[in-house]
Amino acid sequence: MLGGSRIKPDAGLFVGSGKAEEAAAAVAAGEAEVAIFNHELSPSQERNLEKLLQCRVLSRAGLILDIFARRARTHEGKLQVELAQLHHLSTRLVRGWSHLERQGGGIGLRGPGETQLELDRRLVRGRIDKVKRDLEDVKRHRALSRRARKRNETPLVSIVGYTNAGKSTLFNAMTGAGTYAADQLFATLDTTIRKLQLPADQEILLADTVGFIRDLPHDLVAAFRATLEEAREADLLLHVLDAADPERTTRIEQVNAVLQEIEADEVPTLLVFNKIDLSEHETARVERDESGRPKRVFLSAKTGEGLDALREVLSELIFPDLFEGEMAVTPAQGKLRALLYASHAVQSERIDEAGIAHLQLRLPRPRYERICREAGVPLNGAAAARPLESWERGHTRAGRASKGIRN
């Protein structure tokens, strides 16, 4: 690693000529095959440095693209990485085949007078168009799935955060999905969505998304826009941080910058400080703001400490208006009873001598009202529910408090 500073980058080599010679000597001494610059390099700077250093030169964007290419597993992930690579490559095509200049070409390839460089650019543009069409198909499929979720009124929570903060480990611990998780950069490139049961049989969808990084190359943001839309369309974002990271405050700012770029900065966010098992100063807890709203959750996805508290907080934030009460359902209202059971809203059932089922319910009020409409039952009709008594509500709050959630 070479030190030094300049007021502005050199137009030809990015670094000064002296520093470039020093780098060339270090490459030769170490027999290095790749030299990495933690900055953006122009195409001409890359070419000049490769000629001087006699090895492959990677800019920050090029390195990230290489890592993404190694991590992509699904068809969609590979398409997104290929699109970003093609955009990156299209600005770096050079006249490398001077001996083929101005040659005629075969059918479908070079036309009269077309150079090899022009052919390469045309082939790259054609491939970019093909990959974009394939990604549009993926986007339409995601849009259909998203509309289906909205019709079912199932809330979506997306996990976001800096790369290697433990997002996939948290996702697996919450859902039991078994998705790939490793202590490495960009282990997850493909959005995975699973159902998650919350207290009182409430159901949400939890999405694991690609990790963010500072100065994320624009080509990558553009290529992964379809995937990142899961964050923009979410009802709540779980912004996961490494509690043991000394730069976690800076990481928050860097992730927020990416969220702003993908227009997801207006989505309500809950900070989740993961990996408390690696910090001597952190314990599992929930911190709230002045109004009592959960603001931060501290936990360890690896040990499971604090996960129950997170589930309680998710229930509180996503379903703030719960309907809790008893509903009398006659034998003729079989559809209503079936819909309530399908919605996992029935806590208990008691049938009296007249054959009327008395159902103890707990479900989000919007879902309760939708079920009543579908079953043709007026909200203030014979099957209207009796709200829980005040002492029962107090008992529910006390139960939450015993699990570490402060009111």
What would you say this structure looks like, in words?
Mean pLDDT is 78; it is low at 95-113 and 381-407. The two termini are 51 Å apart. The protein folds into four domains: 1-58, no CATH class; 93-135, no CATH class; 154-318, Rossmann fold (3-Layer(aba) Sandwich); 322-402, Alpha-Beta Plaits (2-Layer Sandwich), CATH 3.30.70. It has 407 residues and is of the alpha/beta class. A seven-stranded mixed sheet has the order 4-5-3-6-7-9-8, with helices on both faces. A four-stranded antiparallel sheet has the order 11-12-10-13. Helix 3 (60-71) runs antiparallel to helix 4 (75-90) and helix 4 (75-90) packs antiparallel against helix 5. It is built from 13 helices and 13 strands. 42% of the residues lie in helices and 18% in strands. The radius of gyration is 28 Å and the shape is elongated.
Distance between the termini: 51 Å
The unreliable regions are 95-113, 381-407
Biggest sheet details: 7 strands, mixed
Class per helix and strand makeup: alpha/beta
- What's the rounded overall pLDDT mean? 78
Number of domains: 4
The number of E-state strands comes to 13
Helix fraction bin:
40-55%
CATH superfamily of the largest domain: P-loop containing nucleotide triphosphate hydrolases
DSSP summary: helix tally: 13
CATH domain class name of the largest domain = Alpha Beta
Order of helices and strands: HEHEHHHEHEEHHEHEEEHEHEEHEH
Give the spatial strand order of the biggest sheet: 4-5-3-6-7-9-8
Question: CATH topology of the largest domain, anyone?
Answer: Rossmann fold
Please give the CATH architecture of the largest domain: 3-Layer(aba) Sandwich
Spatial extent as radius of gyration: 28 Å
Strand content: 15-25%
Shape descriptor = elongated
